[in-house]
From TrEMBL:
The keyword Signal applies. Residues 1-22 form the signal peptide. InterPro entries: NLP_P60_dom, Papain-like_cys_pep_sf, PG_Endopeptidase_C40. It comes from Actinomadura physcomitrii. This is NlpC/P60 family protein. Keywords: Hydrolase, Protease, Signal, Thiol protease.
Length: 393
């Protein structure tokens, strides 16, 4: 579900700088399917924080949770953002908070992901509520652990409590995986403390999160361009998705706004051709040995000349969200499986009719035809090729 097509996180020193970032959010705590027993609160916590009592830090090493703020805009640059620029943005009209972080595209457990260095005491205020509330999680990060996304951990096979290499392509250090956690920032699958970030050689203070609750991110970003350094980029964080309501869900059926019958057939045939390929977290081609759920969608639709964004949350925005009862072959099905980020689309599949779908489920399973399960199902997406191309960038 990762490898977004838009990134603004520069890479760790020694790796070429990237200039765009996906603006979608979050990760899973517990993905379930129909028939799975509901995990107890203790089981959820065990999956969320690993070895939380083993840190040598005192309870006061990380400040208690303060007032939570929703991040609306992410800014990142190849090097440290000027103090004067940060001060000017803090004082700008409508800004309720600014959190300065270290941000790169780095290597974690053999995967290139968005990696942030943060102050656990203040950054926690900008994360989804369950993540923000976990004192143990932030103490783990402060003590030198890395917190990773659930999709990277569960789907990607990176175990809680394990030691994994973190850093650039040339130089990496082993860190313990201290937690699975939703951070609420697209393409950020790993978080460490500022001190750990500096030890890894990450740039200092080259990114920031901005909370502007009463201003549209697009309007604020337009104003930001006047004060940001030349190579700094800004994107919106986690745009909302309108889910279908009872009795709603009408979508266009022609006039070039949706796929043709030939395109639908091509997409389904392409998805069928991947059946039997392994699930690979971040996979989007044969070269990577397999596919994840959104990588499979990107591959299949590309065969019909339709460009999709890379991650499920962005793919859910490439058309009209309609109720599953109105789904037809060629629609994508979307799930919000993340209990820590209600409404965030974390899983996606291709509907082929008669209650069946082609899907890349998770690590250990191959791309397959599966019965559609309705637990956490948020509807279907009637794809608009034009909108898809625009969002794919």
């Amino acid at each position: 579900m990762r490898k977004p097509n838009r990134r603004i996180l520069p890479t760790i020193i020694g790796v070429s700088v990237l200039t765009t970032l996906a603006a979608n959010t979050a990760v899973l705590i517990a993905r379930g399917h129909d028939g799975d027993p509901a995990p107890s609160p203790q089981e959820k916590q065990a999956r969320y924080v690993a070895a939380s009592g083993s840190t040598r830090l005192s309870p006061g090493a990380v400040a208690p949770l303060g007032k939570r703020l929703t991040p609306h805009v992410l800014v990142a640059a190849p090097s440290a953002l000027p103090a004067a620029t940060i001060a000017k943005i803090r004082a700008a009209k409508g800004v309720k908070g600014v959190e300065v972080v270290d941000a790169v595209q780095g290597m974690v457990a053999g995967k290139r992901v968005g990696l942030m260095g943060v102050d656990p005491s203040t950054f926690r205020n900008y994360t989804p509520k369950p993540t923000a509330q976990s004192d143990a999680l932030w103490r783990n990060v402060a003590s030198g652990d890395v917190a990773i996304s659930f999709t990277m951990g569960s789907d990607g096979g990176v175990k809680l409590g394990s030691q994994v290499p973190v850093g650039g392509k040339q130089h990496q250090s082993n860190l313990r995986v201290g937690a699975y956690a939703t951070m609420g920032i697209g393409d950020v699958d790993a978080v460490v403390s500022h001190a750990t970030a500096q030890a890894l050689g990450m740039p200092t203070g080259n990114a920031m999160l901005i909370s502007v609750p009463k201003t549209t991110p697009a309007a604020f970003i337009k104003k930001l361009k006047k004060v940001l350094p030349k190579h700094a980029k800004a994107v919106a964080v986690n745009p909302q998705l309108d889910f279908p309501k009872a009795g709603s869900g009408n979508a266009p059926t022609s006039h070039g706004q949706v796929m043709t019958a030939a395109q639908v057939q091509t997409v389904i045939k392409a998805a069928y051709s991947r059946i039997g390929w392994p699930y690979v977290w971040g996979g989007e081609s044969e070269a990577e040995g397999g596919y994840d759920c959104s990588g499979l969608m990107q591959y299949a639709f590309a065969r019909a000349g339709i460009r999709l964004p890379r991650v499920a949350a962005d793919q859910a925005r490439v058309g009209w969200v309609i109720p599953y009862s109105k789904a037809v072959p060629g629609d994508m099905l979307i799930w919000a499986n993340d209990p820590t980020a209600p409404g965030y689309i974390s899983h996606i599949a291709l509907y082929i009719g008669n209650g069946k779908m082609v899907v890349a489920p998770r690590t250990g399973l191959d791309v397959m035809i599966q019965n559609v399960y309705t637990r956490n199902l948020k509807g279907a997406v009637r794809v608009s090729p034009k909108l898809a191309a625009r969002l794919a960038g």
